[in-house]
Write a structure and sequence with these properties.
Radius of gyration: 21 Å
Distance between the termini: 51 Å
Largest sheet: 6 strands, mixed
CATH superfamily of the largest domain: Flavodoxin domain
Bound molecules: flavin mononucleotide
Number of helices: 9
C-alpha cells in the first residue's frame, strides 16, 4: 500500500501536523508513506495553452509544455503510482491556498481516464482524503473542501473522507484540539480501509451527515440553470454536479434529494465526466470552423489595437 501526503501549509503548522497524524495511522497499518510540502518545489502556473486537451480530442498523449521546466512531472510520476493520496491545505479567502490550486490545476495533462483509455498508463484509481485548515468556522471556509474536491476529478481520485479543521489560525494551534488530532488519525485509518476494499465497493467513510450532498458530501449547493444540452434540475451540487431539489424531512430539516437521473453528470466518475467532454466537443469543437475563425479574426482586430496604460513597477 503506497500512500502519499501532499500539503501546502506552513512548515510545522496545522496542515502539516494533521497530515502527519493521518499518514502515521497509515504507516502503522503497514503502508509505505511519503510526504511532500508543495512549498519545497518549483511549480509553475498552467499557461492555459490547452495542448493537452487538444491532444485528448484527437486521442493522443501530448505532454504539458512545462514538463521540463519545473518539478510537476517528477512529482506526478510518484503521484500516479499511489494507492491513496491525502491532501491538506490552508484556507485563504474561503478557499484552498494558491500553492495548492496551482499544483492541482496542472493535473489536466495527466487526465487519468484519458491516459488509461489510450493505454499510456495503467490507471490505479487511488482513494483520497482531504483536510482543509482554517482560522474560522465553516462560514469562512465555505469553499475550502469543495474547491479541493473539485481538483481531484482529473486524476480520478475517490474521496472517502474529509476533515474541516476549524478555528486553528495560529501556527500549530491544532495541537490544542486533541479530538482534531484523533480525527486526522481516523482519516488515515479510513484511507487504509478503503484501499483494502474492492474499488467498486468503496464508499464514503466520513460522518454520514457531513455536508448537503449525499453523493460527494460537499456543503455547497447552487440554483440550477438550463445546461448546454437542455438538462435542468432546480438545485445542483456545486462540486459533483448531482441534480435534484430541496425537500423538508419529517423533522422539518431541509435535505438535498437527488433526482432519479440526478447522477448522470456525476463529475466524480469517469462516465459522468464524459458528458463534459461531449460539451467541450460541442462548444470548443464548434468554434474551430473556418467561418467562426474568420468572424473572430475580424472582430479581434479592435482588441489587438486597443491599448490601455499598464502599471510600471
Ligand atoms: C492570506 C490569508 C487568508 C486567510 N483566509 C482565511 C479564511 O478565509 N478563512 C479561514 O478560516 N482562515 C483564513 N486564514 C487563516 C489560515 O487558514 C490559518 O492560519 C491556517 O492555520 C493556516 O494553515 P497552516 O498553519 O497549515 O499554514 C487566512 C490566512 C492567510 C494568511
Amino acid at each position: 500500500m503506497k500512500v502519499l501526503g501532499i500539503t501546502a501549509g506552513r512548515k510545522n503548522s496545522n496542515s502539516e501536523i494533521l497530515l502527519k497524524e493521518a499518514l502515521l495511522a497509515c504507516q502503522n497499518e503497514g503502508a509505505e508513506v511519503k510526504m511532500i510540502n508543495l512549498k519545497d518545489y518549483n511549480i509553475q502556473d498552467c499557461t492555459g495553452c490547452t495542448i493537452c486537451t487538444h491532444g485528448m480530442s484527437v486521442g493522443k498523449k501530448v505532454d504539458c509544455m512545462l514538463t521540463t521546466k519545473d518539478d510537476k512531472d517528477a512529482l506526478m510520476k510518484v503521484f500516479l503510482e499511489q494507492d491513496a493520496i491525502i491532501f491538506s491545505a490552508p484556507t485563504y479567502d474561503l478557499m484552498p491556498s494558491a500553492t495548492f490550486l496551482k499544483f492541482m490545476h496542472r493535473n489536466l495533462s495527466y487526465e487519468t481516464a484519458f491516459l488509461g483509455s489510450i493505454g499510456a498508463i495503467e490507471p490505479k484509481y487511488p482513494v483520497a482524503g482531504l483536510i482543509a485548515v482554517g482560522g474560522s468556522t465553516r462560514s469562512w471556509q465555505s469553499m475550502a473542501l469543495e474547491a479541493m474536491a473539485a481538483t481531484t476529478f482529473t486524476t480520478s481520485l475517490k474521496i472517502v473522507d474529509m476533515i474541516l479543521a476549524k478555528r486553528v489560525p495560529a501556527p500549530a494551534q491544532c495541537l490544542l484540539q486533541d479530538d482534531l488530532i484523533e480525527r486526522a488519525s481516523l482519516l488515515g485509518k479510513n484511507i487504509i480501509k478503503a484501499i483494502n476494499t474492492e474499488p467498486s465497493k468503496r464508499t464514503w467513510l466520513g460522518e454520514s451527515e457531513f455536508g448537503w450532498c449525499p453523493n460527494c458530501h460537499s456543503n455547497a449547493l447552487i440554483k440550477g440553470e438550463v445546461q448546454w444540452d437542455g438538462t435542468f434540475w432546480p438545485i445542483e451540487c456545486q462540486v459533483c454536479g448531482a441534480g435534484g431539489d430541496l425537500e423538508k424531512d419529517s423533522n422539518g430539516n431541509w435535505k438535498f434529494i437527488i433526482a432519479e437521473d440526478g447522477l448522470k453528470r456525476d463529475r466524480m466518475t469517469d462516465e459522468g465526466r464524459e458528458h463534459h467532454l461531449d460539451e467541450i466537443k460541442a462548444t470548443q469543437g464548434g468554434f474551430y470552423t473556418p467561418e467562426n475563425k474568420n468572424i473572430v479574426g475580424l472582430k479581434l482586430k479592435k482588441y489587438l489595437d486597443l491599448k490601455f496604460p499598464g502599471i510600471d513597477v
